[in-house]
Design brief:
Elements lengths: L1 E9 L4 H11 L4 E8 L5 E9 L2 H13 L3 E6 L5 E12 L4 H12 L3 E5 L3 E8 L1 H11 L4 E6 L3 E4 L9 H14 L2
Length: about 180
């Protein structure tokens, strides 16, 4: 089973190395990883995609939560969410019919041409993994020259206040425990 985890971490040097090293040392494979600053410049969000059963997911979460610089870990895949990948693709496209066909596919997939060379086009596309994969398959016959993808990013739909500090997380847990009694 595929799990999308979101970890809010302190935005300090070495956090990415520490987190990815911890996961690797315990034999967990990361299928996708994206990291970026949040609305608070002191925090970053790491979005991981890991494959495994619920036991593996539980272990990954527990290991992440032990790291001092990790503020909060959330299993996004268990909630209603939006996820996206971003890809840049350079494709062989000499002027003429081939280039016209590629431009039509770019339009159909709601991608955009971001650079035009004498014999190639660079295309940007974002969307669900299945859309990105379908676009790659459509571009293969034209000759993919180069391809680069981001890791997956994801966000839970609706109002979703994530705790930004350990105090907020503890307060949120206390409120949830009080409400469930």
């Amino acid at each position: 089973m595929r799990h999308v985890l979101s970890a809010v971490v302190q935005n300090v040097p070495g956090v990415l190395a520490h987190v990815s090293g911890m996961l690797a040392s315990r034999g967990y494979n990361i299928d996708s990883l994206a990291v970026g600053e949040t609305e608070d410049p002191n925090l970053s969000r790491m979005t991981f995609v890991v494959v495994g059963d619920d036991r593996i997911l539980d272990q990954v979460r527990k290991q992440l939560e032990k790291i001092v610089t990790v503020v909060h870990v959330d299993d996004i895949s268990s909630r209603d969410h939006v996820e996206r990948d971003l890809m840049l693709l350079k494709v062989d496209a000499p002027p003429g019919n081939k280039r016209t066909e590629i431009r039509e596919l770019v339009e159909i997939f709601r991608a955009r041409i971001v650079d035009v060379g004498p014999e190639e086009l660079m295309i940007e596309i974002s969307g669900r993994e299945s859309k990105i994969e379908a676009f790659i398959q459509r571009m293969r016959p034209y000759g993919i020259l180069e391809l680069v993808r981001t890791g997956r990013i994801a966000m839970v739909r609706g109002k979703n206040h994530q705790p930004h500090t350990e105090e907020e997380a503890e307060e949120q847990n206390q409120l949830q425990n009080t409400g469930s009694r």
